[in-house]
Design brief:
With 660 residues, this protein is an alpha+beta fold. Helices cover 32% and strands 20% of the residues. A hairpin with a 3-residue loop joins strand 2 and strand 3.
Length: 660
C-alpha cells in the first residue's frame, strides 16, 4: 500500500505490524500533518463482527484525553472496504527497542516510566476502558521525551469467535495476568499485573516469567514462580520489591486497588531519593540516558547514606543496614558506608556484651543470695507434743458454746513461748473461730477456718496452777487433706491456690503446603501473598482457615488452639481443579468422544448444545474431541481443544458429513 492513497491519507512507509493491523506513516492531505495509520488486516476486515468491534474500540479510546495516551484523530467507519484508525505519529522508538538498545542501570528510571503509564491507565480505567495488552511494544518513547501508551483495546478484538490465532494470547503471553490465561472476566487489575511485568523487566533487565514453551510459561505465571527482583538487581529497594510483589500477585484482589494507588507508592519511593518532578527528570533521562544516570547516582548515594545515618541514630538497626547495603550496591568501595557498617557491628557487639554482662551479674547476685539463705540458721523447732498429757486445763475453762482460746503468753515451756503468736491488742490474744473438724477417715485437719466472734478472755491461772497444770500443747501446722475439704457450719471452704492463666500472646506455628498456589485467609482476612508454601501462626481460640485459588475448589477447615495445645501439625493439600464445560451443537443422533491423557472414552450425546464436564488437572489441558454421526462410523468433527478451569466452550458441528 506504500505510495497509495487511502481516502485523505497518503501512505508513505510501513512502520510496524501486529496480529490485528499494519501501521503506516501517512500524511493527512487536508491538514498537512503526519499521522500513524493503523489498517485492519484484510482477512479480519471481511468479518462483520471484527469491524464492529474495531469501531467500538476506536470510539472508546477517542474519549480519552491524557498526555501519556496516544491520541486518535480519525476512524474510517464501517462503510469503507478497508477499516483504519488514524492516530498521532510519534517519532521515536518503542520501550522494547529502547530496553534492547540500552537498559537503564538505575531502577528509579523504570519507576518513573511506570508512574507515567499508571497515570494513563488510571484515566482509561475511570472511563471504562481496559487496555488488556500492556507491554513494552505498546509503549512509545518520543524524541522529545514523551511517553505514550498505545493500542488500547485492539488486542481485545482477538477474543471474538474464530480469532484465537492472532489474538493477545499468542501476542504477549509473558505479560498476561493469571485471569487472562484462565479466560476469566478481566478487570483493571489485569492491566496492573501486566504493568508489574513491565516494571520488573525495566529494573532487572529480564522478564519475571520465562519458560521454553507457552504451557510451561502459563504454569509459572499461575503459580507465581519467579525470582525476586532484589536478587537480580541489588539496587532495588525493599519498598520497590514490595510494590512489584503486590502488582504481580496471582489473585486480582491481592493487587493494588487502583493504578493511582500503585503510582502513589512509587512516587513515595522516588521522593525518598529526591525525585519529585518526574516528567522533567524523565525528559532529561531520555535526552541523554548515560549522562543522566551518571549524574543521578551520586545524588541517590548521598540520600541513602543520610537516611541510614538517621535510622542508626534512632536505633533502627535493620533499616540502617538495609539502606547501607543498598548504598554499597551503588558504590561498593564507599569508605563512609563501610566505616558506618563496621561501627554498627561494633555497637551491636557492645550492646550484646552489656546485655550478657548484666545477665551474668544478675545471676551472680541470685546465687549469692541463695547461698546466704542456705547458710542462715533455721529457727528452733517446736517440742513434740506430749500426747499422753491431758489437753483440758485451759481449753476446758472456756465457757460452753465458745471456741477454745489460743495459747496465752507465758503458758507452757520456753519452747512453747517461742511459738506463741503475738497479741493483736494490748494484753489481748488473737481470737479464733470454731474448732476445725477432722476430715473423716484421715485424722488430719483442714486448713485454718475463717475467724468468727471473739472468744471471752480466759482468766490467767494462778502460780499454783502453773506449777501443777501442764501448759497447752504447741499449735501444730495443719496438714492438707487429700480430698475435698468439708467446712464447718457457717464457714466457707478454704481458698484454693489460683490456677495459672494462659498467656494471651502465645502463638503456635505450622506449615501449609498446597498444589497449586493458594491465597491463605485466616478468619476471613488475607494472610500474606499467594504462594504454594505458607507459614501460619495462630493465637488462642478457634480459627477458620481458607485456601483459595480461582481455578480450584476452595478448601476450608477449622483449628482450635487451647492452653493445653502443645503444637500444631503441618498440613498438605492438593486442590481440586474446577472442570471445564463443553457444549456440543451437533446434528440429531451425533455422539461425542474425547481423548485425554492417552485414554479415549465416550462423552455422550452431542446434539442441541448438550452440556458436558471435562476434568481439568492443571491450569491448562488439551483434549481431542471427536464427533461421529448416528451410524457410529461417519466422523463429523475431530479437533484439539484447550481446557481451562471454569471455561465454557461451545463447539458447533456441521450438519453435513465433514470427513468419511
Amino acid at each position: 500500500m506504500i505510495g497509495t492513497t487511502l481516502e485523505k491519507y497518503e501512505i508513505l512507509e510501513e512502520v510496524g505490524q501486529g496480529g490485528m493491523a499494519t501501521v503506516y506513516r501517512a500524511r493527512d492531505l487536508r491538514l498537512g500533518r503526519e499521522v500513524a495509520l493503523k489498517v485492519l488486516h484484510p482477512h479480519l476486515a471481511r468479518q462483520e463482527e471484527a469491524r464492529r468491534r474495531f469501531r467500538r474500540e476506536a470510539q472508546a479510546v477517542a474519549r480519552l484525553r491524557h498526555p501519556a495516551i496516544l491520541e486518535i484523530y480519525d476512524y474510517s467507519g464501517e462503510e469503507v472496504p478497508t477499516a483504519y484508525i488514524a492516530t498521532e505519529f510519534i517519532r521515536g522508538e518503542s520501550l522494547r527497542d529502547h530496553l534492547e538498545r540500552r537498559a537503564p542501570e538505575l531502577p528509579e528510571v523504570g519507576m518513573m516510566i511506570a508512574v507515567q503509564l499508571l497515570g494513563a491507565l488510571q484515566h482509561a480505567h475511570e472511563n471504562g476502558v481496559i487496555h488488556r495488552d500492556v507491554k513494552p511494544e505498546n509503549v512509545l518513547i518520543g524524541h522529545d521525551g514523551g511517553i505514550k501508551l498505545a493500542d488500547f483495546g485492539i488486542a481485545h478484538l482477538a477474543d471474538g469467535q474464530g480469532m484465537t490465532v492472532t489474538g493477545a494470547l499468542l501476542g504477549s503471553p509473558a505479560h498476561m495476568s493469571p485471569e487472562q490465561i484462565q479466560g476469566a472476566e478481566l478487570t483493571p487489575a489485569a492491566d496492573l499485573f501486566s504493568l508489574g511485568t513491565l516494571l520488573y523487566r525495566t529494573v532487572t533487565g529480564r522478564l519475571p516469567f520465562t519458560a521454553p514453551n507457552p504451557q510451561a510459561l502459563f504454569r509459572k505465571i499461575l503459580e507465581a514462580d519467579r525470582v525476586p527482583a532484589q536478587q537480580l538487581a541489588p539496587r532495588v529497594s525493599d519498598r520497590l520489591q514490595r510494590i512489584i510483589d503486590c502488582a504481580l500477585a496471582p489473585e486480582p484482589a491481592a493487587r493494588f486497588a487502583s493504578a493511582a494507588a500503585m503510582a502513589a507508592e512509587l512516587r513515595l519511593e522516588l521522593a525518598s531519593v529526591g525525585l519529585v518532578d518526574l516528567p522533567a527528570e524523565l525528559s532529561r533521562y531520555l535526552g541523554d540516558p548515560a549522562g543522566y544516570e551518571a549524574a543521578l547516582q551520586p545524588r541517590i548515594l548521598e540520600r541513602l547514606i543520610q537516611q541510614a545515618g538517621e535510622a542508626a541514630a534512632l536505633r533502627q538497626r535493620a533499616r540502617a543496614l538495609s539502606l547501607y547495603n543498598r548504598a554499597l550496591a551503588f558504590a561498593p568501595e564507599e569508605q563512609r558506608v563501610l566505616a558506618a557498617v563496621a561501627s554498627l557491628g561494633r555497637l551491636d557487639r557492645g550492646r550484646r556484651l552489656l546485655r550478657y554482662g548484666g545477665l551474668a551479674a544478675g545471676l551472680a547476685l541470685g546465687v549469692v543470695g541463695l547461698l546466704i539463705l542456705l547458710h542462715e540458721p533455721a529457727p528452733p523447732a517446736p517440742s513434740p507434743p506430749d500426747r499422753a498429757a491431758p489437753r483440758t486445763d485451759l481449753r476446758s475453762s472456756s465457757p460452753p458454746g465458745t471456741s477454745p482460746a489460743a495459747p496465752l503468753p507465758g503458758a507452757g515451756s520456753a519452747a512453747d513461748r517461742a511459738t506463741t503468736p503475738a497479741t493483736t491488742a494490748a494484753g489481748a490474744a488473737p481470737t479464733a473461730g470454731p474448732a476445725p473438724t477432722p476430715t473423716p477417715g484421715t485424722g488430719s485437719l483442714p486448713g485454718p477456718a475463717t475467724p468468727t466472734a471473739a472468744a471471752p478472755p480466759v482468766p490467767r491461772p494462778s502460780p499454783g496452777d502453773q506449777a501443777t497444770s501442764p501448759g497447752p500443747p504447741p499449735a501444730l501446722p495443719p496438714r492438707p487433706a487429700p480430698g475435698p475439704e468439708p467446712s464447718s457450719a457457717g464457714s466457707p471452704p478454704p481458698p484454693r491456690p489460683p490456677e495459672p492463666r494462659a498467656d494471651p500472646n502465645r502463638r503456635l506455628g505450622f506449615r501449609v503446603s498446597t498444589r497449586p498456589w493458594t491465597l491463605l485467609k485466616i478468619d476471613g482476612r488475607q494472610a500474606g501473598e499467594p504462594k504454594m508454601h505458607h507459614l501460619v501462626e495462630l493465637g488462642l481460640g478457634e480459627h477458620q482457615i481458607s485456601l483459595e485459588n480461582p481455578g480450584c475448589k476452595t478448601i476450608q477447615f477449622r483449628i482450635r488452639v487451647t492452653p493445653a495445645t502443645a503444637s500444631l501439625p503441618d498440613r498438605q493439600f492438593n486442590l481440586q481443579w474446577w472442570p471445564a464445560i463443553l457444549r456440543i451443537d451437533g446434528p440429531p443422533g451425533a455422539v461425542a468422544y474425547v481423548e485425554q491423557d492417552g485414554q479415549k472414552r465416550i462423552l455422550g450425546d452431542a446434539t442441541a448444545g448438550t452440556r458436558h464436564e471435562l476434568a481439568v488437572t492443571s491450569s491448562e489441558n488439551q483434549a481431542v474431541l471427536e464427533v461421529k454421526a448416528a451410524d457410529g462410523i461417519t466422523r463429523l468433527l475431530r479437533r484439539t481443544i484447550r481446557l481451562a478451569p471454569k471455561q465454557e466452550l461451545l463447539i458447533p458441528v456441521a450438519r453435513t458429513v465433514a470427513q468419511p
